[in-house]
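Notebook, bench 3.
Goal today: get a predicted structure for Chlorophyll synthase, chloroplastic from Setaria viridis so we can plan the truncation constructs. The sequence was checked against the plasmid map this morning, with no discrepancies at the termini. Length recorded as 380 residues. Pasting the sequence as submitted so the record is complete.
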Amino acid sequence: MAAALLLAASTSSSSSAAFRPPLRLRSPTHPPHPRLIRTGRRPFPVVRAAETDATKDAKPKAPEKAPAADGSSFNQLLGIKGAKQETDIWKIRLQLTKPVTWPPLVWGVLCGAAASGNFHWTVEDVAKSIVCMIMSGPCLTGYTQTINDWYDRDIDAINEPYRPIPSGAISENEVITQIWVLLLAGLGLGALLDVWAGHDFPIVFYLAVGGSLLSYIYSAPPLKLKQNGWIGNFALGASYISLPWWAGQALFGTLTPDIVVLTTLYSIAGLGIAIVNDFKSIEGDRALGLQSLPVAFGMETAKWICVGAIDITQLSVAGYLLSTGKLYYALALLGLTIPQVVFQFQYFLKDPVKYDVKYQASAQPFFVLGLLVTALATSH
């Protein structure tokens, strides 16, 4: 529930001020966004790192990453690279929520429902699960992604200055309104699910509140967890794996301590997956003092930390299932881990920036299937 997760990713604090060079506002170097020409709306100022005596000779420059004129409308709606520059405000709003990040949260709810052992293919149970998925994905993951883009607008001005917020395609008030609407919608659906399930204690609502708070402190000052590669990525992994699983299981059954421990362990693998996305932002992170793992350890070491977190976690879970007498589930999980290792050597370890999308598209289906195998194992 990264709120969205509870979903549903991927701000500045007093402790980070020492790392961040002083900032000044500059007018955007890119032409005004077409939507601004049409509406006369004041563009959002582009924030860039200012030149100081200490960094005079090493001033970060915005890379040449402007989208092609024939960018994809499909990519724009999903909120991924290669997006077409859009003028429709509702398409821009959807782009900020990054729909491509919703499926892991939806899958997490499904895994939690399966692990409960009480989900039945009735109209009511299916309807409950769909509402829970909407809460976790479009609402709370959308909230998480929007607030993250809001607090990352200075980094995006360096890495991706054509994104909706730094380019001025959407105004400050419109972004803030979207954040509040998505947050309140997600919390409202959480409360509705508790009433629908007849819970004496509103556990789904409180999970939504906890996920939303985690999302906020991940992106926003003064804590801004994402400034620390270990804490920030683990928080992100927990949001995408543990929280939606807990919501789905609590909705249909009982959230037990052993499940909390098992899913928290799985969040270490989520940490590894989150690191994959840090490599493409290394330039902006380094310029603004964010200690992502690729910045802190270098790309070569960070690559191995990433794949180690993913693989060792799954092997540990397979060992746990074997120790509890779930031999076939353990073997199935092991079988799903092997292709991930192959794709790591084939793509990710060769070049984590060039092949990040190809690696994730190839390996993550096996990872999420492993989550379902684990959920089914715990339900029996």
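Residues 1-30, 35-64 have pLDDT under 50 and may be disordered. The longest helix spans residues 123-151.
Flagging this for group meeting.
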